[in-house]
Each structure stands twice: as C-alpha cells, then as structure tokens.
Amino acid sequence: MPAVPESSYKVFLNGKLVAKADAAVSIDSVAFKYAAMVFEGIRGYWNEKEGQLFVFRLADHARRLEESVRVMRMETSLTGIDLSEAVLRVLEANAVSQDVHIRQMVYVDGGGEMFTRGPVGHAVVVTPKAGWFSRENDGIEACVSSWHRISDHSIPPRVKCAANYQNGRLALLQARLDGYDAAILTNPSGKISEEPRGCIFVVRRGEVVTPRITDNILESITRETLIRLLRELHGIEVLQREVDRTELYLAREVFVCGTGFEVVPVLAVDRHPVGSGKPGEITVALRNSYLKVVRGENANYSEWLSPVYKVCNDSPRPQL
Length: 320
Ligand code: PMP
Known about the structure:
The chain is α+β, with helices and mostly antiparallel strands.
C-alpha cells in the first residue's frame, strides 16, 4: 500500500474527502462566533507486525460525541454509526500507516443567533502523532490551579464542547507562565477534578483513587479503560471518590491519563515531589499494559479495536 505523505492527508467534510486547505468554516458561523462545536480526540495505532491500523474505542468515542450533540441541542441526524464510519473512511482513504490523532467535530455551520441549532457541519481531521513520551523516565510537574473547573450547572464538563476548553486554557496558560507543565483544577467544592487534557489517578496508602464522574470531569474513555485494566491485569480495584488537594502532596504516585496523554506520571505537585519524584511502579506497569492494548498486542482486548484495513481472505470489515 503506497503511503500518502501527511501534507496530502485529506479531510472528511460533510460527507466528502477534501484537501485540508479547502476545508473551511465561515467566519460568520455560529461555530466560530459562539464556539458551538463538539468534538472527539481519538487515536489510531499502527501495528507493524499485522500491517494494520487500529482505532481505539471508536464506538465509545462516537457514543460520547452523540451525547455531546444531544446536550448541546445541535440539529443533526448523524448517528454513532455514521460517525464511526467517517473515521474509518478517512483513514483508509489517506492510506494511513503510522500513529495518528483523529479529531472529529460536529458544529453549527451557518450564520445565526446564539440559539441557532443548525445546519450542522461534520469534519474529521487526521494528524500524525506519536505517543506522549518516548523516554521511559519522563513525567510532568503540575500545580493546583487557582482557576476552578467548570460545572454541570454552568457549562457541563461531561460534554466535550470547544467552549469548555477556554477554562482549561486559562489554567494552562497561567501554569506555564509559573513554570509548570500542567494544571490540576479543583471543583467549586475545592475537591480535585481533572487536568484540562486528562483525568487524574492517585496512589495513596496502598489504594488507587480517582475522582468520581460527578466531580466535574469529562467522562474519560481512558479513565474507564485504566480502571478495567487495573482490575483485570493488575488485580487492583480503583476507588472512585472525592480527592483532596493535600492528598496529591502525600501520594506515592500520581498520573494523568487521556487519549492524547495516554498514561503520564506526575512527578511533583505544587513543588512537592510525588513519592520518590520518579515515575511510580503502578504508573509504569499500567502504562505498559495500556500501550500493548491500544496497539493490538493483547488479544484479550481486541473488542476495543477497530481495524481500518480489510484483511485479505477475510470477511469485509464488520459494520459498526
Ligand atoms: N478531561 C478532559 C478535559 C479532556 O480534554 C480529556 C481528553 N479528551 C480527558 C479528560 C480524557 O478523556 P479521554 O480519555 O476520553 O480522551
């Protein structure tokens, strides 16, 4: 299969493959004016041995995108099946044979008012992307932000809407000016919610703990994956409960996770070293398990993978 150079990757826009330069959104659109856009960040992992590109938990991303569309009351007849199929089609059309990040967006395309619900546009953009960290011992330093996480009674964090990311931007811009890599946000009750790009896990007193889905977090697909992998591969039952700021200072291990992050150790919080200040044992073991699963190197989790290419002498790709 001839590889297509990244510069010529086509974008899927409203049912058609077009050059990236032609995939425009009007400056007058409600999407641009009011950030009326919901999206998903998805990863595709190239498995060299099998000559296959696997999309991780595609149906779950499609379901979450449908949920975001519903909460934000966008007017569209797109189903989860259409959304999944669009991702597979664009990857196949671009003959992708490397690790990629896929951004799927649904947005209010026309001009109008703040309450305009349609017409709705749909786009899938593919970008080559390697894993977050290539070196074994890397990790990040975080602060607890003075910005609070958005709330379900104002702008719901459970919905993956572009507008939500302005909250994350404020926290990250401040954190980076102050010399940190990452920002951890608290909810209005002062409990830990999440990093603007991922969910948080804490290892403390022999327990692995993560904030609840009602603590102002995105219902992260990676978080749910790791809870299952910890149970099934590492014999650890994760506790979902409120987490205090000072628990981060006293933790043995802290890590953040997400489709983009994968599993990233947090080495210090507010300049308090976490544990020994090096990636923890559970974090590293879990990251290794996760990276095997997403790349299709653990057959027990193949139901989470959507292969992009039809395999010779095999039945056609199953409909999602
Ligand atoms: N929280 C936020 C705010 C995020 O943007 C992300 C990345 N999508 C996550 C958590 C992790 O979610 P997921 O594991 O589904 O990528």
